[in-house]
Amino acid sequence: MATLPYLRAGQGPVLVLVHGYLGGAAQWQSEIDHFCDRFDVIAPNLPGFGAAADRPGCESISAMAEAVHGLLDDLDLDDIILLGHSMGGMIVQEMTRTRPERVSKLILYGTGPLGLMPDRFEPLETSHARLLSDGVAATIKRIGATWFLHGAKGRGYDRVTEIGAAANLHAAEAALGAMARWDGRPALPHLTMPTLVIWGDTDRSYRWPQIETLWSTLPDAHLAVIPHSSHAAHLEKPHLFQALITDFLSEDTRTSSGSD
After folding, report:
1. Angle (CA) 84 27 141, round 5°
2. pTM more than 0.90
3. How much is the pLDDT for 65?
4. What ranges do the domains of the chain cover?
5. Long-range pairs for 164-167 at CB < 8 Å and ≥24 separation?
6. pLDDT above 50 for 258
């Protein structure tokens, strides 16, 4: 398969942004614009989603992880910072498990270590049945509303539904099965790089026990909770979201300079 389509801007340390279920690279445009003055920012489209909707989806989280690794191989990139949102957070955990030498820092946003997502707003089986009966466009409108504190009136909802509707049905269906079968908990103690865990405090997809497991099990984890936001906190509170990442990525500089 040819290299995944992606967005890229900037120069400097490599920051890779991996989207989640029914997402796409375009959802990261604000982050690309914000960080490109100091980072080489790359946002891939996962197979079957966004600008890669013409490609078959992946049947496993590991296959999605390998697809992103393949892109980075094609671009001859190592020593990267990985950020993953939702299903993308599972993908970057898997990427880091298989090739830890490639990842200098990890950012796990609105995600968890267990793909079944206990206490999710609805079971994955329900999402699968509704996807088959309603189609992709209706599914992203319905599910996307749960990603915002104010539902369909949330800031960024229209953009989310536009991007999500581009996904092909096979990829959308396969991804639900891939998540249901994935369990990243055994790998957590081995992900030793500095990790930032970001969570919106009203997230209905990944509840607190998932976040707490990441925070308490990862060897070098730091937790940031964004108040009055949900699963799409990067769209609801973009300035706070970006400030938290900026702070985390500048920690080495602060430490070496002796500043607080």
Report:
1. 105
2. yes
3. 98
4. 6-248
5. 164/22, 164/23, 164/24, 164/136, 164/137, 164/139, 164/140, 165/136, 165/137, 165/140, 166/24, 166/49, 166/50, 166/51, 166/53, 167/22, 167/24, 167/48, 167/49, 167/50, 167/53, 167/136, 167/140
6. no
Query: Residue 239: what residue type?
Result: H
Question: For residues 112 and 210, what is the distance between their CA atoms, to the nearest angstrom?
Answer: 5
- Please name the fold of domain 6-248: Rossmann fold (3.40.50)
pLDDT of 254 reads 37
Residues 40 and 8: beta-carbon distance below 8 Å: yes
144 near 160, Cβ under 8 Å? Answer: yes
Tokens of 202: 């009203």
% of residues, the chain, pLDDT over 90 = 95
Tens of pLDDT along 63-112? 999 999 999 999 999 999 999 999 999 999 999 999 999 999 999 999 99
CA dist., res. 84 & res. 18, Å (int): 5
Q: What pLDDT score was predicted for residue 257?
A: 34
Edge-first strand listing for the sheet containing 40-44: 6-9, 40-44, 14-18, 80-85, 103-109, 195-200, 221-226
